[in-house]
Amino acid sequence: MLTIQDVSVTFASRTLFKDVNLKFLPGSCYGMIGPNGAGKSTLLKVIAGEIEANKGTISVGTNERIALLQQDQFAFDDHPVLETVIMGYPRLHEVLQERETIYSKPDFSEEDGMKAAELEIELAEMDGYDAEAEAAVLLNNLGIDESLHHLYMRELEANQKVRVLLAQALFGSPDILLLDEPTNQLDLTSIAWLEDFLFRFPNTVIVVSHDRHFLNNVCTHIADIDFGKIQLFVGNYDFWYQASQLTQTQRQNEDKKRTDRIKELEEFVRRFSANASKSRQATSRKKLIEKLTIEDLPESSRRFPYVDFKPERPCGKVILDIEQLSVTLDERPLLQDFSLSVRPGDKIAFIGPNDLVKTTLFQILMNELKPDSGEFKWGTTITTSYFPKENSAYFDTGLNLVDWLRQYSLVDDSETFVRGYLGRMLFSGEEALKSARVLSGGEKVRCMLARMMLSGANALVLDEPTNHLDLEGITAVNDGLINFTGVILFTSHDYQFVDTIANRIVEIAPGGVIDRAMSLEQYIEDPTVQELRDQYYRGHQNMRI
After folding, report:
1. Where are the beta strands (DSSP E) in 299-331?
2. pLDDT for residue 399
């Protein structure tokens, strides 16, 4: 059991949370939620002992082990993949290393023999003889093929390293498992396996994630960081969200009743404070006003952007025709004879194992890259707006946000008009005058969304638009795209985001393209689709969506 007692954490005079008291029980999975900067990742590091709290204590049961999903992809570059996984259980890895050193001695002494016997006993107690087999199974289930198990970490691609580090955290069944964004860069098959693993995991899990579908499938409790405090709620994310909305409505109703009552009392005081016969009642009502206003509701740190894409004109009958597109990068074919016809009303989610393929397709459609062969043509009624996965070049300027966004406002470039759009994206007052160069990842995403809203486009192309956003931002974009009346081409690894927006799925697999007019859930459950997927992925088992 994990117990947090009177824990407070402050950074540079800013208190993330104060006097936190929580208990996390075995057999439960706790989803840690809260806006960006609320302290979710910080709390995990405090629990793991990587950061020291300003006040309070963290206690666990005797001999209980804590495992934290590491975020530094380069920390294990000099270690083989299998060994990196086993390093997730430090004492086991240490025993294996000592054992290997002793047995490799050319002059094996009696003392060495006694030490080796002690190590063998300890190794057996930790199930160490099955360590490599367990590590290999975890890697395979997370999409790391056996051909990669004996490579060094530096030889892997970034998305493969992320999976190895996840296997490292899961290895050896730790007593307390701390996962910070574990679904990042995982395919749908690996996420489904991880959900099942955590569902069956017998110990304590605390997970930070922006994937609502994942939180719903694995969490038994939600730990909400808001108001500078952390509160535990029983249930998954959807249950918490519905309860929080109900609580917020009740608070607003209570606040309105209180405000109405104050106005009523103030009116009485104004009318009768000079009246001798009513002065005592007026004084009594003044005291009641003070009691009503003495306790203000705490201000939530949770803020929702307002995302609303309004096309200036409807789409015509011809949207986009793609004919036989082919492109090769670094002698690797990314697209081969790719053809697609986009219809009015289409909201197409592009899925597949290679993110570069989808990004390259979007760059071609936006005239940022030229294909090796083939052609495409947008309809004459179509105006497009593009959200690229990599947006740094847009912010390499000394402009403040008002002037930055003014560049993209073709109808009205007045400061008042531009500030209105920035305000929707949570940049108000002085925030709207900050330099574009100093923005965080989430702030850049919100600026790019404001730019798209200003465009009035009737066809949106979005490459991973939820990256860097908190749950509130993801929900706002999700709702905005559901309500959009034009055409959407997009990619995302967020299951719920794709499932609730897309009415058509296009999967670019190693052996061919699958195109179905259905939701993601219908697509995954369709037996004919699964037959095609088995055929198109045959010989490419380590490449899955």
Report:
1. 320-329
2. 94
Average pLDDT (214-225) is: 94
Using alpha carbons, list the distances in angstroms from residue 298 to 120, 226, 248, 449: 57, 10, 12, 29
Residue 459 is classified by DSSP as E
**Per-residue confidence band for 24, with pLDDT thresholds at 50, 70 and 90:** very high
Architecture of domain 320-395+439-536: 3-Layer(aba) Sandwich (3.40)
Q: What is the b/e burial string over 465-480, where b = at least 16 CB atoms within 10 angstroms of the residue's CB?
A: bbbbbbbbbbbbbbbb
Residues belonging to the chain: 545
How crowded is residue 382: how many other Cβ atoms within 10 Å of its Cβ? 20
Query: Encoding tokens for residue 113?
Result: 């023999």
CA 307 to chain centre: 18
pLDDT of residue 227: 76
Q: Whose structure tokens read 């719903």?
A: 216
What is the helix, strand, coil percentage profile of the chain, to 5? 45, 20, 35
Q: Which whole number is the average pLDDT over 26-39?
A: 90
CATH of 1-64+175-235, one of 1.10.3720.10, 3.40.50.300, 3.20.190.10, 3.40.50.150: 3.40.50.300
Q: Give the separation between CA 197 and CA 172, rounded to whole angstroms.
A: 13
Mean pLDDT of 38-42: 88
Rounded Cα–Cα distance for residues 480 and 308 (Å): 5
pLDDT tens digits, 391-409: 999 999 999 999 999 999 9
DSSP codes of every residue in 139-189: HHHTT--GGGTTSBGGGS-HHHHHHHHHHHHHTT--SEEEEESTTTT--HH
pLDDT at 297: 46
Are 112 and 102 within 8 A, CB to CB?
yes
Order of all β-strands in the sheet with 176-180? 66-68, 176-180, 204-208, 29-33, 221-226, 229-234
DSSP 184-251: TT--HHHHHHHHHHHHH--SEEEEE-S-HHHHHHH-SEEEEEETTEEEEEES-HHHHHHHHHHHHHHH
Task: Read off the pTM.
Answer: 0.82
Query: For the sheet containing 373-378, what is the strand order?
Result: 332-342, 320-329, 373-378
The domains of the chain are located at 1-64+175-235, 76-172, 241-293, 320-395+439-536
> Over the stretch 124-135, which tens digit does the pLDDT of each residue have?
999 889 999 999
- Assess contact for 128 and 95: CB atoms under 8 A: yes
Reading the block at residue 318, the tokens are 């011809």
Residue whose C-alpha is closest to residue 169's, from 141, 193, 135, 199: 135
Evaluate whether 1-64+175-235 and 320-395+439-536 have a shared fold: yes
pLDDT at 11: 81
CB 161 within 8 A of CB 50: no
